[in-house]
Amino acid sequence: VDEEKTGGEEKTKTRKKRPSMSDFLEATPEVAAMNQYWYSERTIGALVEECSALGRVAFLSTPSVYLSLPSATRARSFLFDFGEFPEAANFRKFDYRDFDLEDVAHSFDAAVVDPPFITRDVWERYAVAAKTLLKKGGKLLLTTVGENHSLLADLFDCPLREATFMPAMHRDALPYQYSLFLNYEPSPESPLSQRNPEVPERDLDHRQGDPAARSVGSSQQQLPFPCRRQQRTDDDDIPLSGTSLTFDELLRRELAKAEAA
User: Fold this and answer.
1) What is the rounded distance in angstroms from the CA atom of residue 72 to the CA atom of residue 196?
2) Is the CB of residue 255 less than 8 Å from the CB of residue 120?
3) How far is CA 179 from the centre of its chain?
4) In Å, how far from its chain's centre is CA 207?
């Protein structure tokens, strides 16, 4: 509350508080049964800053970012989520297994996507949803494990770059490190072009020194930014960044959780 004195009279003016990342994290517990894991405060802040310059944004299963947006960005954007968020003014109940988005089709400038599971069948449905929502040339911001790079490039039918910024989770909730994939090059000043100090150097070293390092396909060599795609074979047994689990072991765990959901 701010107080101003005008002509000897005291006038009280109340300013609406801007939502903060810590507000959401403190007020909204994660629901393990729904495989909910919030981004860290720093990661939310980086995505909020980037999305505030992207126009009308669709937030698919990313309530921590939508509910931390400045009021103007939140007013023009939408949250699509399976949970209940009554404080979200523009909210659509979203079940990736069964949805109809035709009434808002091709009306968003960008989409931020973080499914509850990292498996192909789940990402296939989220890809359909995101492509339905986006305008032609719309921007994608996708978070998942780095080993899903080629999977996402195939599902979205476009080259993707792995951002310098790597997401971190609130309270280090996940045992493996996520990456952020974009279909555009962020500006040099963007927080997504900066390293996230929350991510240990060992995870960066692991990503850069992986023996199955992402290679650039011929169609991607024309891009004005570096882009690496993960090439895997059935014989690969490479631990994921930030964990001793191999990709196949992680997939088995994720599939078991998805079947139980």
Assistant:
1) 26
2) no
3) 9
4) 19
Rounded to the nearest 5 degrees, what angle is found at the Cα of 165, between the Cα atoms of 88 and 114?
40
In a 3-state reduction of DSSP, which class is residue 44? helix
What is the percentage of the chain residues whose pLDDT exceeds 70? 61
Strands (E), the chain: 2-6, 9-13, 57-60, 78-81, 91-93, 108-113, 134-145, 161-162, 178-182
**Rounded to whole angstroms, how far apart are CA atoms 251 and 245?**
10
Q: How far is CA 53 from the centre of its chain?
A: 16
Per-residue CA distances from 58 to 27, 140, 186 (Å): 23, 10, 18
For the chain, the straight-line distance linking the first and the last C-alpha, in angstroms and rounded, comes to 45
The 10s digit of each residue's pLDDT in 198-220 is 888 755 554 554 433 333 232 33
Q: Which amino acid is at 1?
A: V
